[in-house]
Amino acid sequence: MEYTAGAIDPQRPWIRDERDAPATMNWRNTLFNPFGKTYKLHFTRAWTFMFMGRLLLYVVPSFIAFLAGIAGVGTEGLNAPVNLVLFSVPAVLLPFALFTLITEYTSFVVHVRRLTEAGRSAFMAVIVLVPMLLGLIAYALGTQAGAAQYRQMHSPANTEVVEAKSEKKGEEEEGEEAASGDPKAAPAGGRGGARNPQMARMMELSERELAQQTGMGMAFPIWWLASFGAMLWSLIYVARLPNGGEGKFRTGSHMTPEEIARGV
How far apart (Å, rounded) are the C-alpha atoms in residues 19 and 118? Predict the structure, then answer.
C-alpha cells in the first residue's frame, strides 16, 4: 500500500497513517461483522463509543433517581424490577442492561477484527467475554444460594421458631408497656413486632425474586472487576498494536514521514 507524507485530515493533524482516517471507517462492519479487519484508530473510536455508552447509561439514570429520592419524589417505578431474559434489573437501568448485552457482542467483534489486522491470533478476543462468563457463573451460584435460603426461611420448623420468638417478644413488650401504663404504645396483635425488618422484607419475596436478587448481588461485582481487567488489556495491548503488525508498539496514529515514505 502506498502512502503520502503530510496531513491525512487537516482537522486531525495527529493522524499520520491514512488507514486510520475517520472518513474510511465503516461503523456497521466494525461493530457487527467479525469477518474483516479494523485499523488502529477505528478500533479506538469503536471502543470509546461502547465504553462511554455504558458509563453514561449507568451513571446518568442512577444520579437522576438519586436526586429524585432526595427531593421526595417517588422512585418506586424507577426501582421496580424488570425481567430481562434470566435477570431482573431495576427499570431505571434497563437501557444500560440492554446496551451492555449488545456491546458484549460488538466488543468481541472489534477485538477480533483488530487482532486479525495486526497479525495476532483472533482467539485472544475471547478475553473480552470472560467478564460476562464469570458473571453468569456467579449469577447461577447466587440464584442457587438464594433459592436455598428461601426454602430454609420458609421451612415448617424455621417458621414455627420465628413465630414463637415473635410471639414471646411481643408478649414481653406488651407486659412492659402495660406495667408502664402506656396503652397507646401496645402493638396490635403482638405477633411479628420484633421481627428483623430486613428479614421481614426477604420473607415477602417469592423464591424467584430472592434467587434473582442474590444472584445479581454476586454477579455484578465479579463482572465489574473482570471488566476492569479486560479494559486494561484492551487499552494497554490491543489498542497499541501497529497497523499491519509492523512498526512500533504505541498509542495514537503518529507515523513519521520516514515511516510513511517507507510504507511501514
Answer: 13
Q: Which three cell numbers stand for residue 193?
A: 413486632
The pTM score is 0.78
Task: Please report, for the chain, the start and end positions of each structural domain, with discontinuous segments joined by +.
Answer: 1-120+241-264
Provide the grid cell at 180: 408502664
Contacts of 194 (CB under 8 A, 6+ apart): 165, 166, 169, 170, 173
Helix or strand run (H / E) with residue 232? helix 207-236
Return d(Cα 219, Cα 141) in angstroms, integer: 9
> 32 versus 166: which is more confidently predicted?
32
Residue 1 confidence (pLDDT): 45
**120 closest CA partner among 229, 234, 18:** 234
In which element (H, E) is residue 19 found?
none
Q: How far apart are CA 210 and CA 207, in angstroms?
A: 5
